[in-house]
Design goal:
Layout lengths: L2 H20 L36 E9 L5 E8 L5 E5 L4 E8 L5 E3 L7 H5 L8 E2 L5 E2 L3 E4 L2 E4 L8 E2 L12 E6 L3 E10 L10 E10 L3 E10 L3 E2 L3 E2 L17 E4 L1 E4 L13 E2 L11 E2 L4 H4 L10 E6 L7 E7 L5 E7 L3 E5 L20 E5 L14 E2 L5 E11 L2
Antiparallel strand pairs: 1-2, 2-3, 3-4, 4-5, 6-16, 7-10, 8-9, 11-12, 12-13, 13-14, 14-27, 15-26, 17-20, 17-22, 18-19, 18-21, 21-24, 22-23, 23-27, 24-25
The chain binds alpha-D-galactopyranose.
Alpha-D-galactopyranose binds next to strand 24 and strand 25.
Length: 407
């Protein structure tokens, strides 16, 4: 072996070790299919206040929410816990359309960006609360190789494939059924994605279960199985504004990310493959910082982005439910923690919200997203944790949002 190929081997070895250390999974990163949801950590120290009119039991109410352009009926599911926290979901896109939580005085507000009627969700929109799949985030050039075969997907974001393609799971009707456990009330959504849909191989059976409990926790559990090797990366694309949707921008929200590394991107938002240290950069949220504090630096060289739209490496072992993010809105006292089994979380700050009807009037930075997921473009980056799902395996992923208030 010549000297140059030896040094290449060495560089690859160093890169592999660096990646293994960075994802915090020791020498082995479990594939998506091997991940098992872990028990949830104890309830928060500051429980949500009991608003007046608190109810006696958790409830799940179902109502019609209009029909699709093909005439299919869409259902609206309202989950309420004993503290009055209320979550609304629709079967179109298995979409989270409202989360009402109390502020420190007990006053409820919807803290997720949405449309008032189904119409807004039927058209192109910024994925407000959508379940995103079959592959959340970007695949470079809409192409990848799987078992020696080149897979070509539609491109819908410049040269790249984004959020499952032009239709994607956000624009599919999911079957819905109620779920009740001793501690929680919820809805299970199910969708069968046909072999070849959006170019992906394999018939994929996907489920998304949302549950709400009295500890102020909204949990999302995903599963998927396939009949041919394929790739899977599922997330929820909710935009949050803890002061209340429509109350202005989110730049004063104080954000902590349990992430020591992030993925720098090229000018089409594809990760370069490097896992960069956040220390000393505007990407460092290892201590709480207002989201807007250093956003100006991102708009200039060398980043030249409209704001945060980057995937972070969540500290700790993928497959374990662990803290990814904690956000506090100082004026209302509302706090949201995000825990996940995923290796990454995409921080996106509504950079492309344009105030137009397609965004229900929401303007740039009026919401932020914490999209828990595998790293973007993993199908083309063998050094990233694998997103390949094979027949006989079950993809499992869990994300938990814990809502509370601070004085
Ligand atoms: C993601 C992407 C963004 C943008 C939004 C949808 O989070 O990373 O670049 O495409 O979805 O508007």
């Amino acid at each position: 072996m010549g000297r140059s190929s030896c040094s290449l081997c060495f560089r690859r070895l160093v890169a592999t070790i660096a990646l293994a250390v960075a994802v915090g999974a020791g020498s082995h990163v479990p594939p998506a299919a091997a991940q098992t949801p872990q028990p949830v950590e104890p309830a928060p120290k500051t429980p949500l206040p009991l608003p007046t009119g608190a109810i006696a039991s958790m409830t799940h109410d179902v109502k019609p929410f209009g029909t699709t352009r093909e005439g299919q009926e869409v259902s609206l599911h309202t989950l309420t816990n004993r503290k009055g926290l209320r979550v609304k979901l629709i079967s179109y896109g298995a979409t989270l359309i409202s989360v009402e939580t109390p502020d420190r005085s007990g006053k409820l507000a919807n803290i997720t960006l949405s449309f008032p009627t189904l119409e807004g969700y039927l058209g192109r929109h910024p994925y407000f609360g959508s379940t995103v799949g079959r592959y959340a985030n970007r695949i470079a050039g809409g192409k990848f190789t799987l078992d020696g075969r080149t897979i070509a997907l539609a491109t819908n974001n410049g040269p790249n494939h984004l959020h499952g393609g032009p239709t994607g799971f956000a624009h599919r009707l999911w079957k819905a059924e109620p779920v009740t456990t001793p501690e929680a009330v919820g809805v299970k959504f199910q969708y069968t994605s046909a072999d070849g849909e959006e170019g992906y191989p394999g018939k994929l059976e996907a489920t998304v279960v949302y549950t709400l409990n009295d500890a102020g926790e909204l949990r999302i559990d995903y599963t998927a199985t396939t009949d041919k090797p394929t790739v899977v990366n599922l997330t929820n694309h909710a935009y949050w504004n803890l002061a209340g949707a429509g109350s202005g921008d989110v730049l004063k929200h104080e954000l902590l990310l349990a992430c020591d590394k992030y993925l720098p991107i090229d000018d089409t938002s594809i990760p370069t493959g490097v896992l960069a240290d956040v220390r000393g950069t505007p990407f460092d949220f290892t201590q709480p910082h207002p989201i807007g504090e250093r956003i100006g630096a991102l708009k200039q060289e060398p980043h030249k982005t409209k704001g945060y739209d980057h995937c972070y490496v969540v500290r700790g072992a993928a497959g374990q439910l662990r803290l990814a993010a904690r956000v506090k809105e100082p004026a209302s006292g509302r706090v949201m923690e995000v825990h996940t089994t995923e290796p990454g979380v995409q921080l996106y700050c509504g950079n492309f919200l344009d105030g137009g009807p397609g965004a229900n009037g929401f303007k740039q930075h009026e919401g932020f997203c914490l999209e828990t997921q595998h790293f973007p473009d993993s199908p083309n980056k063998p050094e990233f944790p694998s997103t390949v799902l094979r027949p006989g395996e079950t993809f499992r992923s869990t994300t938990l949002h814990r809502f509370s208030v601070e004085p």
